[in-house]
Fold this protein.
Amino acid sequence: MAAHSDPGHNRITEVRPLEQAEAEIQPAADRNDPNTGPGPLGAVTDCASAALTMALLTAMSFAVDGELHLRHLLLLAVPVLASLVIRLNDRAAGRIAGVPSASSEREFRLDLLRLFAITGVICIHAVDAMFPSVTTGAAPEPAMAALLPGTGTLDLYAALRTCCYGFNIVYIMISGALLMRWKDERLKDFYLKRVSKVLLPLLIYYFFYHWQNGMLFPLSAARIGSIFRGFFTADIELCPFYWLIYIIISLYLIYPFMRYMMKDLPYPALTVLAAGIVLFSGTVAYTGFVFAPVIGFWLGYAILGYWVTRPESRRFDRFLLLFGIVQAVVIFRLIRQSTLNGTGYNGYMGLITPYTPIMVFLCLGYFAFVYLLPKRLVPGGKLIRFFSKYSFSAILVHWWVLYFILGRFYTRAASAGTQTGIFRSLFLSGGIFHTIYDALLMNAGTHSALIWLVAADLILSSAVGALFEEYVLKAPLRIWDLLVIRRPFLRKT
């Protein structure tokens, strides 16, 4: 094994093959486990999962205009088949890893918070889909209005939606908490890893939403170029939730440099910085004072995420939780007042989001709640880790899943909008979830229907996200890995 001296730190750095370095950080495969070992049961599971993935894609293709298009399916059948071959080869070589375990209690609590965050984001869009009048200000549809249990119910849903908006920001804070920690990592390695884990999957899903909406064909260089331009210019009409990922990606550009700042910043100074971020959130939101530090807003949230997850910050948890609860009450009062004076959504949203003390303390309260949970009440095991492992794919596919459960498709295609009977019958998952939703809506009320819609979307999105990640994304990401990550000239020398 070769070694070289690092003059900047007066130490010896071992040079290891990339494959060996990756093996050290990946969970090992249990060759006795039928799910990860090389046995025939695992191979059968892989083939069945790939077939289920193709069934999903077939349902999606059929739903665009009620007809099956072979070209639609062949386009994605290629990566599915290639991903299956790669997975079977990895399984035979013993390289299929199980669900990783959390490296510490701190990491596990962040996994739990990530699960809360994806649930909150789904809740936002579920409220929007069921009650568009919450944000548009229009009167609810007569059929839905008749199901509302009281006159103040829409205000309650608006408050729920606004509180859940904070979970968008929690994602930003988690990224800051994890990526601002000091790590001796080259810039090139950091950015290539972000491309592999975030940018490429985001791009593939962007093409997926165009494919699902029937807007990828006729396939041509001009059409592909137009979609690429849309991706890099944030044309996200088909997937409006992408705005959050774009913000996080923009923060990735500065995180490696922030690591050096945070590494040498004493905790008391970091706390003063966090207090300043909160202070300037108030001056920006509620006064005409235009001078504000550039370190505020989205980057400020990321820094707050780094601060609140520091072990020294645990002494503030009870205060932060109390402040968070107070903000939830304030949010409901502001919404109620806006309803009474007729200003509606526009009358309260600017007072609460996105960079205000209300939202800052609400989000810090979410972190405090997770950290204050007694160990015996924190759910453990592989389930939480499963949600965490596939949370990115789940958040990217939840938009389609939501409208699939509702029995319609979010699409710009003029002929689309409802699921066709044949696939509502054949593809039982969507049909069953939608049937239960309808039954709850008509018999148990909007509260039960909303809870079911969120829970069903979370479960299905995680399952579909896991299938897509393992049986659609694996092939293109492995190609990227072979062409770029593992190229000899990119290895440490």
About this structure: Residues 1-34, 411-429, 488-493 have pLDDT under 50 and may be disordered. The longest strand covers residues 3-6. Residues 105-380 form one domain.
